[in-house]
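dumping this here so i dont lose it again. seq + smiles for flavin-adenine dinucleotide
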Amino acid sequence: MGAVMSTGTLNTIPDSPQALVIGAGPTGSVAATVLARAGLSTVLVERANFPRRKVCGGCLAPAGIRALEACGLGERLHSIDPIPMRHLRLQSGGAASSLPIEPYYSLDRGRLDEVLAAGAVDHGAIFQDGVRATIKHDDHVLLEQGGHSLDCPPGIVVVADGLAGTSLRERDGFDWVINDQSPIGLGAVIECPLDDDDDDSIVMRCSKTGYIGTSRLGDGRLVVAAAVSAEAIKRDGTQGAVARICREAGDHSRRFENIQWKGVGQLTRQRARFAQGRILVLGDAARYVEPLTGEGMSWGICRAADILPHARRMLEGEDVCEGWTREANRMLRTRRLVCRTICGLSRRPRTLSLILNILGERPPIGWATRRLCWSSS
Ligand SMILES: Cc1cc2nc3c(=O)[nH]c(=O)nc-3n(C[C@H](O)[C@H](O)[C@H](O)COP(=O)(O)OP(=O)(O)OC[C@H]3O[C@@H](n4cnc5c(N)ncnc54)[C@H](O)[C@@H]3O)c2cc1C
């Protein structure tokens, strides 16, 4: 199965598509797939040139797997040989426990994004990478590529341009509200000998100042992703802050020394609004909690999978902003609570290690471990 096929230059983009999707991460590609599959003329644009690297733990939750399969992207997903992760191993304050979970898929994030964009093309979307989109005040979108530009007045604009997106920078009312306690995201993919602990486990090392997660890829490399307090990085430097988290969690392997980390900004943030006029915002571009429970991709994918009725009504001139925002909040409410509780616990090593010591001796309660994972939207 082929990788992504960018369909040409700005010349191949129709003058006024019914839907223009900005950003070809999982959220944008799923939105483009759903819209194109329903027969809407759909263009998907991406600022980076594919393949591109993205800081991510690369673990796809069961809800995201199911949503991809339901919208016709299952074959593309399975073509990159994701590895099922059947356990979540938590380490804190020297204690550890391994909890059985409904399988997450461990996958190469760069390859996932490539095949999902290719999937959108399979379903009829036009895809163009290397194109920067900027939404103007009249809802027209300026598309720029290598010194050329195109003014595009789409029927609707779907903003899926992630945490570092720039498409809304000229629009009022879409500012980010950033939590000042928010951790910084770090990621890397490393060559690393197989450890008994991590063949089918997502391993999380938790401490007061952050956490470091790992999962194994099909080719044997290890995906490492971390969320570290900004204060700890300022005080100890990135390597020092990471070493400290490992030490405090009880991981003395020193396997993360001298990694070339790639960083992203402060993670915990939310847009002042999720929709306006002809614009719908979703995925990381709308809201981000924290990556500890590995749900970011699934939140974007599940939201994008539900986009069609809203898009249709918007194209008919209806105001869908309230309904779109209400549904987004409903979808996130429960998961945010689970995520915040787990993140809060991860920063209290004594309490967590006490819980892990108890869990280490007893079989974990099925209900509790199921609540940990996002199984359905
Ligand atoms: C450390 C860390 C670990 C994580 N681990 C996990 C995990 O294990 N599991 C999980 O599910 N999630 C995880 N996440 C979260 C996950 O990476 C995100 O939730 C996910 O990438 C969101 O997808 P998206 O499509 O909304 O945005 P993105 O993947 O960020 O895609 C947005 C795209 O828009 C493009 N873009 C930006 N501006 C423009 C523009 N003006 N014009 C055109 N294109 C533009 C960007 O180049 C980018 O490709 C993690 C995040 C971090 C930081």
